[in-house]
Fold Expansin-like EG45 domain-containing protein.
Amino acid sequence: MYNLLVFWISVMRARNGACGYGSFATSFYNGRLAAVVPSIFKSGSGCGACFQQIRCMDSKLCSKSGTQVIVTDLNNNTRTELVLSSRALMAMANKGMEQQILRLGSADVEYKRVSCDYKGKNLSVRVEESSDKSQYLAIKFLYQGGQTEIVAVDIARVGSSNWSFMSRKSGAIWETSWVPVGAVQLRLVVTSGYDRKTIWAKSVLPANWNVGVVYDSGVQIDDIAEEGCGRCDLIWK
């Protein structure tokens, strides 16, 4: 089902956003990004959610195909639910109407949530700069496919059954003060169907992991979470 929306012109916020994607955000869907209200942001578990066919209803101004965006930020504007980047907004326009849509004040639009598709990329993790092998580890999840949310993360040394939980630091970043000695495996709980599913990434970080490096988890998430979506409001940034 589609939902009618209204968008207002807004000032673009910092690109790193509340999800903590940093410079990676602009590489997602060619910079077609969205900020969402807390009810969709879900304390960070909504980071990485994808929406498609966001399109305005003015056929002279906007194309029928619309555009697809990914959630990278939190929007605290109580009047609206989605805030689009200028690239996403222009992607809705008919050819030659890009500047006109940037100047548009408001319009009816519609959208639906869909699976994220990273063209075969596995779920990856980036070791954040604050990490320390002896006492602290913070990782950021990238390329989370499917229509899912990561709701829990456990960590253990490869070959061990002694799991410890990680906590969500902010957005897509998870942390722990219990750092396994040696190579690291992860166990993720994601939304799937009307329930949840456990995904086991058997070897994610090598024993000699380094900060700032992105590591391939070896797994792809393509599950679909069945959920409703209420009426939303949308603005661009």
Summary: DSSP finds three helices and 15 strands in the chain. Residues 1-6, 8-15, 228-237 have pLDDT under 50 and may be disordered.
